[in-house]
Design brief:
alpha/beta; Rossmann fold; eight-stranded mixed β-sheet; two-stranded antiparallel ribbon; globular; disordered N terminus
Length: 234
């Protein structure tokens, strides 16, 4: 059956402004296999490196505007969410949500997703992208991994957050505080070098760890340069 394009309405995004970025924004269509996700991304992410605020944040805390790039691991993880049988309404925490792709995929699965990031600038972008996909009430907040709130979730998602070893301890501490006793954490990584050290640290911290590839086949050890999905349980 054909659809009359005149009846397809764009969502009202007037209350969800995108942050100003050099080079502006472009709209892309993300194929997650089981669904298609409309998405706004910065046209030239590297242009943010010259902003005075970014330069100062890097000087103070070695911060970089990684949020402005849609990393390939996020698309792969969004595809894998189609195969999970978490019931509708499951409370899900996403850390390091960036522009919001994984969190939006979770919302489309019917889960109650809290999307969080430590970078204030990306919060408005994630809210905009959520509203673009029909979720104007999406819960998107700033979260400092070093100061986890007194909340717990049965599912925690994270994608491409292990790129610096200094983040590993705060992430593991956050999981210890915010993951329920019977909960599960899915953590996707493109196979960066620090992944090996994180796997070792997670084991030392008492987590049961399963490593899977992009097809969710079990791996006996972490591989560099290849997508991997870590499943952590207490």
């Amino acid at each position: 059956m054909s659809i009359d394009s005149t009846q397809v309405r764009e969502p009202d995004l007037s209350g969800f402004p995108l942050p100003d970025v050099p080079g502006g924004w472009r709209r892309v269509d993300i194929d997650a296999g089981w669904t298609s996700i409309d998405f706004m991304v910065p046209q030239t992410p590297d242009a943010l490196l010259d902003l005075p605020d970014v330069i100062e944040a890097n000087r103070l805390d070695d911060a970089m505007p990684y949020w402005a790039t849609l990393w390939p691991a996020a698309t792969t993880m969004s595809r894998l969410l189609a195969h999970v049988e978490w019931r509708s309404g499951t409370r899900v925490l996403e850390i390091g949500c960036g522009l919001g792709l994984v969190g939006i995929a979770g919302l489309l699965r019917g889960w109650n997703v809290l999307m969080t990031d430590g970078e204030v600038t990306t919060i408005d972008a994630a809210r905009h992208n959520a509203a673009l996909n029909g979720f104007p009430s999406a819960d998107v907040r700033v979260l400092d991994w070093r100061k986890p709130p007194s909340l717990q979730f049965p599912v925690i998602l994270a994608c491409d957050v292990l790129y610096e070893v200094r983040f590993h301890e705060p992430i593991l501490n956050l999981l210890s505080e915010m993951l329920t006793d019977d909960g599960v954490c899915w953590l996707a990584d493109p196979g960066r070098t620090p992944l090996v050290e994180f796997v070792h640290s997670a084991g030392e911290a008492g987590f049961d760890l399963k490593i899977m590839d992009a097809e969710q086949r079990a791996c006996s050890f972490p591989f560099r340069g290849q997508f991997q999905l870590l499943e952590l349980r207490r």
